[in-house]
Amino acid sequence: MFVEQRTYSLVPGGTAEYIRLYEACGRAVQERLLGPMLGCYTRDIGELNQLVYFWSFESMDERTRRRAALMADADFKAFRAQIRHLVLKQENTLLVPALPASAASAAVSVTQPTAP
Question: Residue 63, CB half-sphere, CA atoms under 13 Å: how many?
Answer without folding.
Answer: 16
